[in-house]
Amino acid sequence: MKQHWYTSPVREEWAAKIASLGTVADALACLKAFKIQHLGPDRETYELKKEANWIESRIEMRLAQLHSEESISDDALLNKTIEGECAATVASRWLKKADGAHDPIAMQKICTAYRKACKPPMMPINYFAPVEKALVSKLLKLRAPTYLTIPLDELRQLRGVTEISVQ
């Protein structure tokens, strides 16, 4: 008997949807749509609240499983994005975008967009992690001079924060 630490009707419904995904294309479309609708500061809805991260992780696990089953070679797994692009080229593109950012708000948007677009299994971790490190390092350097002196309400406004209650 499989034990669950926590379960809910929402998780059970999504688990069934995820289990029915049979191809990389289906899982990729599901993950992209889910991210647009339920994740990040630009999400369309907050209806899933605390369930969104769990569901995202399960879709990603299914996508990674299908991708590894369908991939022909190690090169496809280690050097290409899940959509078949050269991971080094994609990484380079994101670093060039960061070169053009000179304020922390713009850099935060680039970091958020990068995570949403490239977080594994979308891109192999051996390419994702170094770019993530470079982007976040630049973000922290841009934030450093003023970040702690800006009042919280002003910071929220600058970043376009939507406050929610997760109770």
What can you see in these coordinates?
- The chain is mostly helical and 167 residues long.
- The protein has two domains: 1-70, Methane monooxygenase, gamma chain, domain 1 (Monooxygenase), CATH 1.20.1280; 86-167, Monooxygenase (Up-down Bundle).
- It is built from eight helices and no strands.
- Helix 1 packs parallel to helix 3 and helix 2 packs antiparallel against helix 3.
- The longest helix has 19 residues, at 52-70.
- The radius of gyration is 18 Å and the shape is flat.
- It starts with 8 loop residues before the first helix and ends in an 8-residue tail after the last helix.
Global outline: flat
Low-confidence segments, given as residue ranges, are none
C-alpha Rg, in Å?
A: 18 Å
Strand content: under 5%
Question: What's the level 1 CATH class of the largest domain?
Answer: Mainly Alpha
What's the total number of strands? 0
CATH architecture of the largest domain: Up-down Bundle
N-to-C series of helices and strands? HHHHHHHH
The count of helical stretches stands at 8
**How many structurally independent domains?**
2
Helix vs. strand class: mainly alpha
Largest sheet: none
